[in-house]
Amino acid sequence: MPELPEMENYRTRLSEHLIGKRIQEITITREKSLNVTVEQFRQHVEGQTIVAIDRKAKHLLFNLESGKVLLLHLMLGGVMYIGGEGDAPKRTKQVTFIFDDCSLFLMGLRLGYLHLHSLDQVEEKLRDLGPEPLDDSFTLDAFYKLAEKKRGMLKSALVNQKFISGIGNLYSDEICYQSCLLPQRKVQELTIQEKQALYRSIQAILKRGLTYGGYMDMPVYKGDLLTGQYNQHCYVYDREGELCKRCDSKILKAKVASRKSFFCNNCQR
Ligand SMILES: [Zn+2]
After folding, report:
1. What is the pLDDT of residues 207-245, one digit of tens each?
2. What angle do CA 78, 226, 24 make, to 5 degrees?
3. Residue 201 Cα, ligand 1 centroid: separation in angstroms?
4. Is 62 a domain residue?
5. Helix axes 192-211, 169-178, angle to 10 degrees
6. Residue 268 Cα, ligand 1 centroid: separation in angstroms?
7. CB-based burial, 211-234: b 16+ in 10 Å, e otherwise
8. Domain span at residue 52?
9. Mean pLDDT, rounded, for 108-132
């Protein structure tokens, strides 16, 4: 499932191409992806200009000139592509936004959704999300306070969206690796130095993910060479049996808090 760096990469790429553009037409082949009927959706969206694209946790928010917001969550398997019918991937498109010079295709939306809301409704929907880890307000002190109350394993804390926004299965493993902590560790047993290392790693790994354009396989548009580069730069994720870049031990895979997790049992403590 795309995490903060992937969604932020989408936000940047989509913003470059779509801000200020008018949605001429919208095609929907999967009504279940919506929270209203196709007819209502088209009524509110067609003819509207996209004025801003924001990201909150793993969601994208398309702000329309009417003040309405389209709230997108790709969930597992969802991808986006900007282009023409000629270069678009040969896959079923659940939603297609048609602009005068390109289209935005949404594919693989099995559990993913695109909901139409007012600004107030969106705020209500996203109210329970934890802090954004790359925001200025997410200081070391704020993190200490947050971690103080947290029980359970590090792995489950990091992927908990109410604890911190935007981290999922891949980056939680990378963060644990970078901070030399095992994902099985209990949050309440971490020392102050370990919490500090964890805080620094959360920011460093998410920024590293952004630098390499996240891990999504598919480019966002033809000629997009950045998106997906993180796949070649993973420290531990999906590298079971390969050697640790820090100590040359074999990377292990195990279920931690009922999620698959990759780590080095030698240099992570
Ligand atoms: Zn190691």
Report:
1. 999 999 999 999 999 999 999 999 999 999 999 999 999
2. 55
3. 16
4. yes
5. 130
6. 7
7. ebbbbbeebbbeebebbbebeeeb
8. 4-125
9. 97
